[in-house]
Amino acid sequence: MIRPSVSTPSTSMTTRMIFLSFSSISLQSPSSYQACLLVTTGYIPNQSMAKVDLSYRMPLKAREIVEAFLSRGGERIYLVGGFLRDLLLGRESHDIDLLYMGNPLEILENMDRPFFPLDVPRGIYRMMWGEYQVDVAAPKASFLEEDLRERDFTVNAMAYSLAGKELLDPWGGMEDLGARRLRAVTPWAFREDPLRVLRAFRISLQLSFTPTQDTLELATRVAPLLSQVAKERIKEEFSLILAHPHSVEVFKAMARRGVLGVLFPEVEEGKGILQGKWLGTDLRGHLLGTLYSLERILPYLRDFFPLHSSSIKDLLVEEVEGGYSRLKVLKLAAFLHDIGKPSTMVRRGNDLTFWGHDREGGERVRTLGERLG
């Protein structure tokens, strides 16, 4: 069982405002990372509350945005989620997550900017502000700690009071940031929203974090419930996965944990199917290997295609539909190109043939696309 690291809030901590750049200290070392936190912010991991000014770490435009919300939201507005996590890690992010302890419409309607609902029953709204995407949400519970407890991972379950300049960390998120560890907040985190299974693999890759064993076991156990998630959400999550230059690592990790077959049973059917003497791995391994090889080649297009690399790059960034570029579609094509082979496999003497697998594969991809959005 995952046991959240709950600690008693400390309001007597002395703030040390020494402006030392996080980038000058290696974040690969938990000890140096925690030392940096202590020097720059006065924050000590395992404390659930600390006075700290994070505004100087924000890009000027992001600071302008959060200050505009602060002027209207006062003490009830908090910075949360991935933006806060990335801010603490020194990573750039253009997706600002805000929590308003009330009805978000109270402040959004006074912002003099257009906004639109993402989820009206849950009180989630989005506003575009230049290159920034700002999501404002109502709390899921009456108290802030309870709201944070309902989030996915401890590193995303912190809140920063814009008015009080306090970092609230009731579930040990800072300690896990320092250890580069991904840990579910509660044992029911994945069951509350099975899409978090995919998020666990994606965030681990993006941040180079290691999921705890308990978190992996919980994700594996809940993976079959992914079939109940709206296909639009699955599609969006895979778009984020495919955007990573090494997205194959997510697919490999899912294969190791038995999660890949839940979403791509057509690929899982290839496990154990050998394709003859020319390929030294089974069909599933071949599909993963093809995606791996594609992602290895992409950074070197100029070497492979010196006369056409610029045109190819321009073509690959073109959007096909709904956030999917030609590059993302190409990655999917590489990953799925032979999924028609299991159902067309025939042994002829000492050899295996897969006649017609291209047509069968096309039909399977069509069915898979309808299923996953």
From TrEMBL:
Residues 209-268 form the tRNA nucleotidyltransferase/poly(A) polymerase RNA and SrmB- binding domain. Gene3D superfamilies: Beta Polymerase, domain 2, cca-adding enzyme, domain 2. One of its GO terms (molecular function) is metal ion binding. Residues 77-115, 141-183 form the Poly A polymerase head domain. Pfam families: PolyA_pol, PolyA_pol_RNAbd. GO terms for biological process: tRNA processing. Its cofactor is Mg(2+). Keywords: Magnesium, Metal-binding, Nucleotide-binding, Nucleotidyltransferase, RNA-binding, Transferase, tRNA processing. PANTHER family: MULTIFUNCTIONAL CCA PROTEIN (PTHR47545). Belongs to the tRNA nucleotidyltransferase/poly(A) polymerase family. This is CCA tRNA nucleotidyltransferase. It comes from Thermosulfidibacter takaii.
